[in-house]
Amino acid sequence: MPQKSGTAQAVESLFIDELETYRAQHREKDYELIDVREPAEYAAGHIPGARLMPLSRFEKLMRELDPSKELLFYCASGGRSMAAALMAAESDLKPARVINLQGGYMAWDGKELLDFPKVRLLADKASLADMLQEAMNLEKGAFRFYTLSSAQEFAWADTAQKLVEWERRHAQAVYRLLEASPRHEPLAPFDDLFASLSGTILEGGESLEEAVKKMQSLPVSSCYAFAELALDIEYRAYDLYRNAAATAKDAAASEILRDLAEQEKAHLSFIAKVFAACSGEAS
C-alpha cells in the first residue's frame, strides 16, 4: 500500500510492482501517470498510458495537470520522479494526491536497477545544534562532489561549478546559526571547521572519488549519472533544513532554515534542466 513519505510533505511512495494493483482499484479518470524522463527515453519504451512531462521542463508543463486527479510520477529509477513529485506537492496546483513510483521504468521493465551512488540516510538528531552539524557536513559533501564534477567534460560541468559556489554559501549560513546557538565549547573559525569536515555522505561510507569513477563506468550517460546523484544530495539537504526549521525554537533561526530549504528546492529545479542537455550525450 502507498505510504506517506517521512521526508517530503504530501508525497507518498508506491513500489512500481504495486502499480497494476493501484490501477485496478482506481478509475482511469481519477489519476494521471506521468513519465518525467526525456523524450528519447520515453520513445525507447514507457509504461502504457503514461504522459510524457520531462523533468527538465516540468515546472512549465505542470500547469497542464488536473489538480482533481491523483498524480503518479515515475522516471528511470526514482530520483527524477521524486523531484517532480516534490515540485507538484509544494506548488499552487494542490493536487488531490502525489505519489512517487519507486524503482521506475527499469523495475517495471524487469531490468536490474543501476548501482547509482546514494546519499546515506541522515540520522535523527536530538538537538538543533546536532542537525546543524549534520547540515554542515552535508554541504561539505555537496561542495566536494560538485568540485569533482566541475572537472568533467560534459554538459553537467557548468552546472556543477555554479553549485560549488552556492553550497559554500549555504555552509556559511549554517555556520552563523551554529555561532548563535548555545555551546559548551568555542566554535572554530568557519574556514578551519569547513576544511576539517569529511563530507562523507554516501551509503556505506563510499568516497566521492570512488563514486565519480563508478558513475563514469555505468552503462548510461555519465551526465545523467552525475545529475541523478545531485538530485539525491539536494533532496536530502532540503529535507534536513525543513526538519531543522521545525525543530528550531528561535523564530529567526527557523526562518533562515526555511529559506535554506527553499533554496535547496530551487537547486532541484536548476539541476532538473540539465537532463535535456544530458540526453544528447553518449555514455
UniProtKB/TrEMBL annotation:
Annotated GO MF terms: transferase activity
CDD domains linked to this entry: RHOD (cd00158)
Name of a matching Pfam family: Rhodanese
Domain Rhodanese: from-to ranges: 27-117
Keywords: Transferase
Keyword Transferase included in the entry's annotation: yes
Organism superkingdom: Bacteria
Signal among keywords: no
Name of the protein: Rhodanese-related sulfurtransferase
Organism: Desulfosoma caldarium
